[in-house]
Amino acid sequence: MNGPSNERLVLSRQNRVFERTESPPPTSLFDPSKSQSFFNQCFTNLGLLGRGSFGEVYKVLSLQDGQYYAIKRSVQRFRGDRDRQRSVREARNHERLCPHPHILGFKAAWEERGHLYIQTELCCTSLLMHTEAQPHNPVESVAWAYLCDLLSALHHLHSRGFVHLDIKPANVFLTRSGCLKLGDFGLMLELTREWREGPDGKEREEREEGQEGDPRYMAPELLRGEYSPAADVFSLGVSILELACSIEVPKGGDGWQQLRQGNLPSEFTNALSNELQSVLRMMLCPDPSERAMVPELLALPVVRRQRWKRQISLLLTESLLFLFSFCQTIFSIGRGLFSFFHIPFISGRKSAVPCTPSKDSWDNDGDCSTPPPSFSYTDTGSLGEDLVFIPDVLGPEYSPTFSHRMKSLAFECDTSTPRPKSADQWNRGPV
To answer: Protein kinase domain: which residues (predicted)?
Structure first.
């Protein structure tokens, strides 16, 4: 069966697989006659990265190219053709967004036994987990770095007629260089010309169904069914406010209402510069027609200045990481050559003499020889539920700004970890 030009369909029994033509699976790996799924034949499952209400994300090793990736699998099987089309649209829209330095890289996608699989690049951790693991409050330069990266991502997305509708720290991911990448496009909509004009009809009803994001970051007009790029700007503003002030934004109540009336919590924002406060007010304007759009924000002199600093910082960091990786490779090659020719003065470290543990330690210690659980495929269960892969928690040396990485080293010996200000404290007032 021949599919569209950007897909390759492979039918086998109840499996239907589609991939980009740039990276078709080798015939030596995927054998349709085998009972094993495409996932189990082509990847080694290294464990669960995270689970949500709509999907599970796994860290995998590709047997095709030997690279690590993340694969998102829908939790529920398709409830019909309409549900399937909606899920497949997420993968197709994600592919159309790439490539971009601040958009999570799309590799491939396929449908198998009623589930959708999306293969993307593997990042170190999410922005939410990274900020929660930091031992001290972020400096303002870090908040500017977050803002610059995500404004660039939104500009790329909006310029192609899409709105994300679920901007929040949990859907932003970090690379080793500290570069932020926007991901999770399950709620993304393509705003066609007819949609922007707001006609009544079947198309609108289909798009409105199930389009609800996290209420903590949701723009007020979304409650009225008004979808536009302005909603993403509001959600990004709430995210930056949360990260810059180290607060927990409320899910409801008076604090939630005040924020959507344009009233920023002054007891927390007073520590920010006037420039950042001004930008946040522009992003959190209650009226979407008066809210600053991404091109307007990118044209601000302060944002242009911060973007230039950010680009220099990323360039330096990525250059240092490349140099370090290159030196490691040269050292490994050199050590292998010396070992091959048995040069005596370059000898490896002598292995320690094995020490037999006492019988008491046998009784007290658990059995560490148990092999990892099998990752056999089941239609109703998860893939490898028992083994959970813990993502790398980036330390201060992986902070988004180069200067902040240097300053953060001074905090390594500080064991005090201030807790973020909760939504209850926000509602009560200053602590």
So the answer is: 43-303
